[in-house]
Design a protein that fits this description.
- With 318 residues, this protein is mainly alpha-helical.
- It has helices spanning 13-29, 51-68, 80-95, 105-120, 125-129, 180-191, 218-231, 244-255, 261-268, 278-283, and strands at 136-140, 146-150, 166-169.
- A three-stranded antiparallel sheet has the order 1-2-3, with no helix packed on it.
- A hairpin with a 5-residue loop joins strand 1 and strand 2 (146-150).
- Helix 3 packs antiparallel against helix 4 (105-120), helix 4 (105-120) packs antiparallel against helix 6 and helix 4 (105-120) packs across helix 8.
- The radius of gyration is 22 Å and the shape is globular.
- Residues 1-6 have low confidence and may be disordered.
Length: 318
């Protein structure tokens, strides 16, 4: 177009998917055609959702995989064990104030709060970084156990409102490394932020700046996140991205907490029309670390998995 040469990125399957999504949204919102499948006989519905376009895209995807070797690569999902390692490193660095490090204790406390919110609430990093103080409230049950109530003003999957709040109770002590309640309370008490954005840009001393209208950028967070992965000796840090937390949290809810798919979709804001199978992209990717080595599939003497905190069973079928 316009005499410019096509690049590999412009002709990739990922770009095709983005173009079709843009057309679907354009016809749906600006053309007032909604998300109904196109009906050629009556000329109603969304043309981007026609059966012919679906067949063409499916065939195009197959050809690109067969002839060009394209494979969709998602950001590697972060695991609960990796978050636990970073939690321990960050906690130790907070106490050792004499060490010369790539960041200070304030930034590590801030990162830990962002990690847990994105992982447990299945949020995109951009959504976490734009959380403001008025979006957060607290509830207490009869036993005085606190719960975090997070109500977002805007989400990619809920552009017309009706955003359900995230209600997260205080996690047990052995899950402290995943607990958003502990992490957020620690960050608010440490930073003293009670209005404006909770996660702000940092100054040269890695302390939050006073301007309420300048949230931390996603690029800065990603750089810090990868530095944190280097702290725990992760080799391929560039396999991880800002979407690693949303994918990792989805897998954690399905594999560790054994939530049913419908509950995960309702909680994370995904469509429950399983014909689209959007949820599968978050649960399965060749880029993820394997949950179990292939050589141990039929190893009946392998070490037990992590014990379930509800039923106390540690067998793989628990």
């Amino acid at each position: 177009m316009h005499g410019a040469l096509r690049t590999d990125a412009a002709s990739s399957w990922s770009q095709v998917s983005k173009m079709r999504a843009a057309l679907t949204k354009g016809f749906g919102m600006n053309g007032n055609r909604g998300n109904v499948t196109w009906d050629s006989s009556s000329g109603t519905g969304n043309p981007s959702l026609s059966i012919m376009v679906a067949f063409y895209c499916r065939g195009l995807h197959r050809r690109k995989v067969q002839h060009h070797g394209e494979t969709a690569t998602s950001a590697r999902a972060i695991t609960a064990s990796t978050l636990q390692k970073m939690f321990r490193v960050n906690f130790q660095a907070e106490k050792d104030t004499s060490s010369t490090d790539w960041c200070g204790s304030s930034l590590r406390i801030c990162l830990q709060a962002i990690y847990t919110l994105a992982f447990v609430c299945l949020l995109r990093v951009d959504e976490v970084l734009k959380i403001q103080a008025q979006d957060v409230s607290w509830e207490y049950d009869e036993a005085k156990v606190p719960s975090l109530v997070l109500t977002l003003n805007f989400r990619k999957t809920h552009q017309f409102g009706d955003i359900k709040p995230f209600i997260v109770r205080l996690f047990p002590s052995f899950m402290a490394h995943l607990c958003p309640v502990r992490a957020l309370v620690k960050w608010i008490s440490h930073s003293g932020i009670n209005s404006g954005y909770l996660f702000r840009k940092m100054n040269c001393n890695h302390e939050p700046i006073l301007l309420k209208s300048q949230p931390m950028t996603a690029d800065f967070f990603l750089q810090c996140f990868r530095n944190n992965l280097v702290d725990i000796h992760v080799d391929d840090v560039y396999a991880y991205g800002t979407h690693s937390f949303r994918r990792g949290g989805c897998q954690w809810l399905a594999s560790d907490l054994r939530w049913p798919l419908r509950q995960i979709c309702a909680y994370g804001g995904w469509s429950m029309e399983f014909s689209h199978l959007t949820i599968v992209k978050y649960l399965i990717s060749w880029n993820d670390d394997p949950l179990l080595p292939r050589s141990d599939f039929f190893n009946f003497e392998r070490a037990p998995v992590v014990k379930c905190f509800t039923c106390n069973r540690s067998c793989p079928c628990a």
